[in-house]
Each structure stands twice: as structure tokens, then as C-alpha cells.
Amino acid sequence: MLPPRPAFSLDRLGSVIAILIGIALFAAPFATYRATRIASGEARLLIEALPISMGAVVAAVALGVAVGSVLVREPLGRLGLAVIGLAILLPSLGLSAGFLTPAGNSFARVSPSLGFWLLALSFSLLAIDAFARMKLDPYGRLAALAAGVSALAFLLVSGIWDDLSILKEYHTRADSFWREARQHLLLAFGSMAAACLVGIPLGIAGHRMRTLRTAVLQGLSIVQTIPSIALFGLLMAPLGAIAASVPLAAALGIRGIGATPAFIALFLYALLPIVANTIAGLNQVPAAVVDAARGMGMSARQRLMQIEMPLALPVILAGIRIVLVQNLGLATVAALIGGGGFGSFVFQGIGQTAIDLVLLGAIPTVGLSFAASIILDSLVDIAKGALA
Fold first, then answer.
1. For the chain: N or C, fewer Cβ within 10 A?
2. Where are the transmembrane segments (predicted)?
3. pLDDT per residue over 138-170, tens digit each?
């Protein structure tokens, strides 16, 4: 017989969350004040970064969430605690910026500090745990993502965060931000689309021919082992030579530096997951199903398009998910060779010791990767459900 379950027990993840909240409230600074964008920062605890009444409300809510995360086990209850915590925390950051910035001072900068990030992490972990316990279907996950994006968009449009340093960096670079955003998406999605156009047929051919499969997978595996900076460097010399000797290539924008070597490198990195997953997806199609289709008189092309590819689609989509998340991150490095994208802000910020400029490039990259992962995971589950 199993030993009786204790009548009272503490939630393990909730205990970790409670510890993080305690550190955020009593040991870590909530915000950092700088006299200028590159000046040394002055750390401010929660009680110093907000008016007394607002600070007390945030602290009380955070402590309530800490206790609830340990004691409450019902998914809806945990989700409610996380939503309340985030609903109080996120606006309070904007209020903190307005409180700490002297009136009429356009040079001062206020940035979120460790305490804020720990509170945001704690409440987000609680929400993710609640969603995991609820076992949401793919449409529920997409709805939750849409709700989160809508809430962030409301905060941005409302202007409550306008006094934050990262928003001040954005307002001075709004035109270049959206230009680099388009470039980042073009590099990531364009290279993924090109890899799909080449990789899926190559995977189909590799599924049919064992010799080709071995050679292709080994070659692409070698490409994956090359660091991104090294691959960019390897592509610069031949592309520069082509641009110098072929005027038409130079007119089309093919150069040793810029977007072209970045696009080709991302394309090469994207091939292995797509080719490998296409082969794996086709390999898992039951032989009995293929034999039945053959017995019905279907041609090889009909079997491929109507039977094998639909059954392999969830595995292929999983490969595309890997590629998209990978490319969104790697596209940041393209800025080192003039490829543009959000990496431009990251490396400018590093060079100027301006952490908020770094965040202006890093946060959208992380957000895009997170959203792409949820969306494509949901599409994989939808595809699996359609085949069930």
C-alpha cells in the first residue's frame, strides 16, 4: 500500500517563487536612476522607487502572491494570483520612472533593476505553471498569447511607461527601430522560407535515396558546427569577389558585407533542422498505409502529396519551429557585418555602455522568439489533432 498523502504540503515551485519574491522585495533594487543615459546608476529599493502608498500596495500584493503560490494548488487560483501580480507590477514600473525623474529633466534615465525582473519572473513562472496544469489546447494557448500581447500593447499605448529609459531610447530612434525591425524579420523569415523551399525537397530526396541522405546530413551537420561569426567571415570573401567581378551582382545588392552574407548564413543554418525533420517525418509514416495507397492504384506522386506529406507535416512543422526561433536569435549577430536588425541596437548599446539601448534590441528579439515558439507549437498540435 502507498503511504497516506500528507494532509498539508507546500508547493515546491511555489516555494521557489516565494523565495524569489522575498529577495526582490527586501534585498534587490527595484529601479536604477541615472543622471544621464551613460552615467553610473543609483539603485533604489521598492520603498524608495515609488510613493509610499503605491510601494506598500505593490509589496502587499507581492507578499500575497508569494503566500498563495505556496498554498494554492488550483490552476485557476494560481493564474489569478499571477495576473493580479503582473497587473500591479507592470504599471508600477512606469509610476516609478515618473516618481524618480525630476520635473522638467529630460536627461535623467530610470531603468528596471534586479528586483523588478525577479518579480516579473516570479509572476510569469506562476502563470506558466498554471497554464501547464490547466493543459490548454492549442487554441487556448494562442488565446493566452493574444491576451498577453494585448495587455503589453495597452501599456505601451497608454503612455504609462513613457518615462522609462528604454522608451526614451525608442522615441529618439522610432524610425530606425521600425526599419531595423523589418530587416530583422526579413532576415529571419526570408531565410526560413528559402530553407523550406530547398530543404523540404532535399529531405524528400534523402528519404528516397540513402546515399544522398547520409551525405546531405553529414554536410549540413558540419555547417552547424561553424560559429556564426566565423561563417559570416567565410562568406564575406567570396561574396566580395563576386560583387567586384560581376556588376549585376553588385547592383542586386550582393556584397561581402551587409544583408547578403547574413541571409546566406541563416539559410545554411536553417537547412539541417528542416531536412532532418522532413526525413524523420516521412520515415515514421506507417508502411502499411503506403502499401494500402499503392494497392489503391495511387502513383508515387499521389502517395507523397496525399498520404506521406500530410502525415509527416507535424514533424516538419516542428523543424520549422526550431529554425524560426534559431534564426530570430542569430539574426541579431548579423549587425556585426552590417546586416541590420535588432542587433544594431544591441551592439551600439554595448559600445556606448548604454544598457537601455541594448534592451531596445534584445527585448523585441526575445519576445518574437517566445511568440513564434508558442504559435508554431500550437500549429504542430493542431496538425496532430487533424491527423488523429
1. N
2. 12-32, 52-72, 79-102, 114-132, 139-161, 181-205, 226-250, 262-283, 304-324, 330-350, 357-376
3. 999 999 999 999 999 999 999 999 999 999 999
